[in-house]
Amino acid sequence: MNKIDLLGRRKFITGLGIAAGAAMVAPAMAVSEKATGIKWDQEIEIVIIGSGFAGLAAAIEAKKLGAKDVHIFEKMSYFGGNSAINGGLFAAPVTPMQQKEGVEDSVERMVADQLAAGRGIADEALLRHVASHAMEALQMTLDAGSEYHPYLQQLGGHSVARTYQTTVSCGAGITQPLLKKCRELGVNTHNRSKFEGFLVGEKGEVLGIKMRENYHFGEDQPGKIIHIRAKRGVIMATGGFAQNVNLRMAQDPTLTSEVGCTNAPGATGEGMYEMFRLGAIPVHLAHIQSGPWASPDEGGFGYVSNYSIYNFPHSIAINRLTGKRFMDEIADRKTRADAELACRDEQGNALPPILITSYADSKKHPNTEKVIKYNVGWKFDSVEELAKHFNVPLNPLKAQIEEYNGYVKTGKDAQFGKNMTKAKDKYIKAPFTVVRLWPKVHYCQGGVMVNTKAEVKDSFTGEPIKGLYAAGEVCGGIHGVSRLGSCSIPECMVMGMTAARSMMKA
Amino acid sequence: MKTLKIMLALGMLSLASLSVQAVEIRDHHKEVIGKDCKACHDKGIKQFPSDQACLQCHDVSELAKQTARSEQDKWQNPHNNLHYGKELPCQECHSEHETKKPLCSNCHTFKYDKHKE
Ligand SMILES: Cc1cc2nc3c(=O)[nH]c(=O)nc-3n(C[C@H](O)[C@H](O)[C@H](O)COP(=O)(O)OP(=O)(O)OC[C@H]3O[C@@H](n4cnc5c(N)ncnc54)[C@H](O)[C@@H]3O)c2cc1C
To answer: In this complex, do B109 and A374 lie within 8 Å of one another by their Cβ atoms?
Structure first.
């Protein structure tokens, strides 16, 4: 934790403190065991673990297909996981809005875009399955009452505009209506209920689970274990493991506690590891994506992330030690995250770089006002003032700005080859807005292997593990090396619905 | 209605257990629950209070009104917020025996001047 203090100014990553604390007080983990002789405390038709997009969509679909007794268990005190704090960006091909805006798109085209980002290791069959049903998932949110901005967006890596965004620009615009819908349909929702292991039959099939009730995350109160029989089976929708520093460092040692995290505190991965213990196949665990648009001055995703995603094309990122640029501001996520992590002072301590934007250009984004108001970004009237505030050498900075403005004029970045199209006519000039940058761990591409029926495959037999289904970020391999923005919501929801369908047919 | 609830809680005082770890943070709690730990610790002294314990006296909609913010910042209302609506259990942000930060501070730097950490 000391390293974090070195970054000064503010307590660096509040969420991280919570996760680390939780790891320390976590009771010895119960593990999966044979169900022989177990006394069942409860019997439930469908057990769903996790209350994000995947879990909620699974519950609604199961109810629609006639399930009587559906329960969602969530270890946190609140429902929604990463989904409730997500950006609300939802990609789908061949949608009404695309028709209205005259955008030509297809399932194949969306799959092709995702395959390119996956760099050869994405799972084409799963991508096609998700894209083919994405519109159904979007419809499920509309039926539940989600509202979307009246325009489409084209995010990085997508060849056409196919992304909807909720009017609140947050995934809560989906999780809140879905949760309400679940309850209307009679789904039972339990908070403070932590899944701790499977109870398996003679042939390794999942018969039920061990559930810790009255569980208080991050607190030293053990709660009580009960045994729940799952008649039709268990759907694991427990999300990623980005908040678990030990587990993510086991995959990628560069992702130390010094790198923050955008995820909800509950993204700690024990559900996934329990499936591995049972025999599930681990895929692509080391592909963990960091967001280079985050700020060390607030926790999580905060306000700066969307602010800088919007502003990078017409801004310069400056190393405070040298006063010079150090990267193409719109390179891919990994390139930028690595370049930021290399910004250090003479002692090698982290020295978060700054992103400088002309106020005239930055203010078009709705977050700019909030960034300044909540003290996670600053406005300066002159270069002198700015340089003094961040202790940046003045003359090199002035020279850099002048040089870069030359590139704006010619449309050619001789330093880093940035695509200057969107920077056209946008000179870096006073007054300025400035935020500090530092990458945060954002998304875990890896997880357990599933097929297009959301069945979890066994590593030795290659057959589905009976009674076990998984959906959402806890699954791996679908996106390959890099997930395209706005492609997780359709995946989580479609695979959640798929799990429910498979289970009801089994 | 509210007074009735307070009276009820006061009534429970007679059950008071005398092993006291003082309720130090909120003065009004001192008056109402005094030394009766069970007024909050409804699941037993060694267990955290249930998520419903606080709601014996407090009304979420009432609290949401008290902490309402301007239209532009309306979703920063801790008692009715963007991510969890009115459903956030009190203990995520409040505690009687220790200091706590509001949950929002995981990701945001909003100021809640009246929030006692
Ligand atoms: C800040 C942020 C912004 C994002 N923006 C976008 C975006 O705009 N578009 C997009 O497509 N993707 C986005 N993503 C990615 C996307 O939000 C996630 O991949 C997605 O929400 C995962 O959904 P899920 O249902 O798989 O898991 P989650 O929503 O994370 O839900 C999993 C739940 O399971 C619970 N859980 C975990 N372990 C246990 C256990 N042992 N027992 C009981 N419960 C347990 C967790 O507490 C959690 O509530 C974003 C992610 C973040 C963090």
So the answer is: yes
Q: Quick one: angle between helices A53-64 and A172-184, nearest 10?
A: 30
Per the structure, the complete domain to which residue B84 belongs is given by: 2-106
A382 touches chain B (CB under 8 A): no
| Cβ <8 Å between A84 and B92 | no
Q: Is residue A190 part of a domain?
A: yes
User: A360 and A394 in contact (C-beta within 8 Å)?
Assistant: no
Q: Is residue B48 part of a domain?
A: yes
Alpha-carbon separation of residue A21 from A155, A256, A259, A301 (angstroms) = 36, 15, 17, 20
pLDDT value of position A185: 98
Tell me which residues of chain A have a pLDDT lower than 70: 1-30
CA-derived radius of gyration, chain A: 24
pLDDT band at B25 (very low <50, low <70, confident <90, very high): low
In this structure, the answer to whether residues A232 and A330 fall within a common structural domain is no
Domain that holds residue A94: 6-21+43-289+441-451+459-505
* Judgement on whether residues A310 and A420 belong to the same structural domain of the protein: yes
B113 in a structural domain: no
- Per the domain annotation, does A309 fall within a domain? yes
Q: Which CA distances in Å does A406 have to A10, A30, A413, A425?
A: 36, 62, 9, 11
Q: The domain that contains A415 carries what CATH number?
A: 3.90.700.10
The answer to whether residues A218 and A350 belong to one domain is no
Q: What is the DSSP string of A458-483?
A: BTTT-SEEEEEEE-STTB-SSSTT-P
> What's residue B23's pLDDT?
57
**Closest alpha carbon within chain A to B101:** A14
- The pLDDT, as a whole number, for residue B96 is 85
Does residue B116 fall inside a structural domain? no
B27 pLDDT above the threshold of 80: no
A213 and A100, same domain (yes or no)? yes
- If asked whether residues A220 and A306 sit together in one domain, one would say no
Residue A73 near ligand 1, beta carbon < 6 Å: yes
Give DSSP secondary structure letters for B84-113. TBT---GGGT--SSS----GGGGT-----T
Q: Is residue A37 helix, strand or coil?
A: coil
Q: How far is the C-alpha of A195 from the C-alpha of B17, rounded, in Å? A: 35
B85 and B78 Cβ atoms separated by less than 8 Å: no
pLDDT band at B117 (very low <50, low <70, confident <90, very high): confident
Question: How many domains does the structure of chain B reveal?
Answer: 1
Question: How large a percentage of chain B has pLDDT more than 70?
Answer: 78
d(CA A394, CA A296): 23
Number of domains observed in the structure of chain A: 2
Does the CB of B112 have a partner CB in chain A at under 8 Å? no
pLDDT value for A198: 98
Q: Is the CB of A239 under 6 A from ligand 1?
A: yes
In chain B, the N- to C-terminal Cα span, in Å, equals 29
In a domain, A334, yes or no: yes
Q: Is the CB of A498 under 6 A from ligand 1?
A: no
- Residue B84 inside a domain? The answer is yes
Q: Which long-range contacts (CB under 8 A, 24 or more apart) does A101-107 make?
A: A101/A151, A101/A152, A101/A161, A103/A152, A103/A160, A103/A161, A103/A162, A104/A160, A105/A160, A105/A162, A107/A131, A107/A132
Q: pLDDT category, B16, cuts 50, 70, 90?
A: very low
Q: Output the domain CATH number for residue A119.
A: 3.50.50.60
The residue of chain A nearest to residue B90, with distances taken between CA atoms, is A77
Residue A32 lies in a domain: no
